[in-house]
């Protein structure tokens, strides 16, 4: 986690205890090229992570410390859903006439069953891409997701090839089957990929463009030793018209 000018997030543990996380403060986004310090936390399943702006806790007639204690009291209840937590916080702190913008996000941690994830180590060798594609196809068939096998293989081929070409060190591929299908490619480079449009005579440069066309969403997140490029695809619909689960 990193903090860009906003108050520290609140962590609500499953027992209802509340902690305001001690994250180093960074400048607001867009105010220059200063680096951000990051912190890593292990959160138990069922925790709530509460993100908010200072407009929620600060008023002209109420200082921030009082607002933080009111927020702590509103969150100190175990067993709530994120929606219930949002409602309780807004009922307790939302002024009748806000003088500042207010944003509030509550996210709950959960753990996927072991059978809903798969990962592979990939040697930094282009000849390994075909083997990974075959392994991914077998896993998708096991998950009864053959309808998205071709698209998923194409996405991963492009991402793995990019990692082999531009990164050094170990490469790892992971699939997550949740409410959508998530593909992740880990490498040791901290350079973020950029989408560009190849000209008609260019021999390369189309990989990430193809990924963006076939995936519903994609992005990059950084780790302590590199980065992860991830994509998200909708699950195919069952006969009842609902995503397969």
From TrEMBL:
> Would the keyword Hydrolase be found if you checked this record's keyword annotation?
yes
Q: Does the keyword Hydrolase apply?
A: yes
Q: Which Gene3D superfamilies match?
A: Histidine kinase-like ATPase, C-terminal domain, PPM-type phosphatase domain
> Keywords of this protein's UniProt record, alphabetized?
Hydrolase
Q: Which residues form the PPM-type phosphatase domain?
A: 1-109
Which part of the chain is the Histidine kinase/HSP90-like ATPase domain? 123-230
Q: Which InterPro entries match?
A: Bact_Sigma-Reg (IPR052016), HATPase_C_sf (IPR036890), HATPase_dom (IPR003594), PPM-type-like_dom_sf (IPR036457), PPM-type_phosphatase-like_dom (IPR001932)
Stated name of the protein: PPM-type phosphatase domain-containing protein
